[in-house]
């Protein structure tokens, strides 16, 4: 399909997998290790130089913005070695053509040392380090290929990043062993120096690749049997609520939690920037070690293979008709239960990958995490309305901390937030429903 001028102007994101599914860990809940079966003859998981340079050149050329963001993940990207990433930096400089280049690097942290940290600091890499909590919790599912715990190695890697002043955030998978401990996990992450926190729910089938397509669920396919590590939907929502209640009283503006930042976007009136909560998806694809491009990190399946960058331009693969339809399907297949939901504006049905719970006969399935999302978004509603009002009035959203603490002290009004007929918390003197609550009531 030809690429139009408007498509050339639309940015997109690619998650690069330079080592494919190759990894030095054997995490019990990992869905990506099984992708090795797509490349049965592969002996070494490493992106060849010609694929690497072609990807970097095409990705930069296809971006309309002056700043271009690369994301390197896996598998485990440190297995590629520092020489590989020296090539990354060199190729980026060769093809930047006046653009500013940014690199993000997601790692399990096991191989990080002072040499790695010095390199990452020198070239301004943002590092995401995966850590699921204190030692017993982290090592419950995250072990090496020999089944040995890795927590201490991860902490050594984190300390190396800190010694070299590398900018980093933490990514915590929420699963059956840690979702019931929100305060413990949150306080631990703060104690180890994290100021930017991401929480990713583990929802995996007992058999790799065992999720039905949403259309199959709609046609009566049974929900999959889930892996024992899968987080409970209510537990997931309860975890986010527990962390939020700690954060909103003392850490706003100091600690940044991806779910909370994204929620505020929705309450302000924007389409949430995080793909799982946006109205449509399809704008965040994956490139494998050999140049194969897939629709999404969660859809690396043969039916969602878009092509190879050595055979077709990346921009064309990203904007092909199949990918456009894939992205639009998220909104078009939204079940009626979601369409009438009060928090649809913040959730938009969640990731289609997890829409496998049957609803009414003939209707599309609903997201497995829906009960958790409803619990979380309804709980944070009064605080988000307050922060949105503060932004609208030109004041710091961090003022919500005083509001949250006053609500906690008032006990009886703890759960209700600003009254629609009460004074607006922005201080305008008007009723809340006639001021900052107007957008909220329209959404409902």
Describe the protein:
The chain has 444 residues and is α/β, with parallel strands linked by helices. 38% of the residues lie in helices and 12% in strands. It is built from 17 helices and 12 strands. The protein has helices at 5-8, 49-62, 82-95, 114-122, 135-141, 151-163, 182-191, 214-218, 233-250, 258-268, 314-318, 321-332, 336-339, 344-347, 370-392, 400-410, 438-443, and strands at residues 13-16, 67-72, 100-107, 126-130, 168-174, 196-201, 256-257, 284-287, 292-294, 305-308, 355-357, 366-367. The strands form 2 sheets. A 10-stranded mixed sheet has the order 7-6-5-4-3-2-1-8-9-10. A hairpin with a 4-residue loop joins strand 8 (284-287) and strand 9 (292-294). Helix 2 crosses helix 3 (82-95) and helix 4 crosses helix 6 (151-163). The two termini are 39 Å apart. Mean pLDDT is 89; it is low at 1-8, 412-417 and 439-444.
